[in-house]
From TrEMBL:
<dbReference type="InterPro" id="IPR000210">
    <property type="entry name" value="BTB/POZ_dom"/>
</dbReference>
<dbReference type="Pfam" id="PF00651">
    <property type="entry name" value="BTB"/>
</dbReference>
<dbReference type="InterPro" id="IPR011333">
    <property type="entry name" value="SKP1/BTB/POZ_sf"/>
</dbReference>
<protein>
    <recommendedName>
        <fullName>BTB domain-containing protein</fullName>
    </recommendedName>
</protein>
<feature type="domain" description="BTB">
    <location>
        <begin position="21"/>
        <end position="91"/>
    </location>
</feature>
Amino acid sequence: MATDQSEVLVRKAAIRFNNASLVTIFAGQVPHQEKFMVHDWIIQRSEFFQRVLDGQRAEVDKRVIELPVDDPITVQNYFEFIYTDELSVLSEKCTGERCTHFRTIAELYMFADKLQDLRCKKAFIQKLCSHILERKRDGKSFIPECFLVGKIYKGTVEGDPIRVLMVDVWKTCRMTTERVHNLPKDFLKDLIASCQDSITTTYPYQDNFFHKGAKYYMDKVAGSD
């Protein structure tokens, strides 16, 4: 059942609530730019935010942080999750061939990575694993689409836990010529290398995703809470 619209509006109002202890954040570019008012404790959990405010930039005196290249919707979802520990955009069950939940969570993971928010990275990895394990009507698991794999590889660095997850999940599906052409070369290299490393194992992926679960990838997120 979808989240009541009034509840979503209340959450948005809470995020935009203004008082002297808040920092102003602008996301996106005009005319689609959005303004958010965020509490200090949000800033303290992100090394990225702290560097902006502690540095020598003009924004420091104004307590303003600009995120011109970031999607306002992703920023909105991130702050909603911080304040409520929930994501209203995931309230409807994903049943289609292409699950938009994957894209939402992956974009949040990459944004949290930019902010160096390790706790959120782990939380989003866990949510992504949960959605992958959900079954479609035909009994098969959801597999992240080629477009999303490409976006993840473009927005992360070599060895990132979410890249490892993509490789392990794609080991479980049948590869077609069309799919190969639509996947990034770096991903295919990682996939081949991973298969070669575990070629003597009957079900190599079970040691990672299906056997160890989300914790395997959460533990790969550097640092500690």
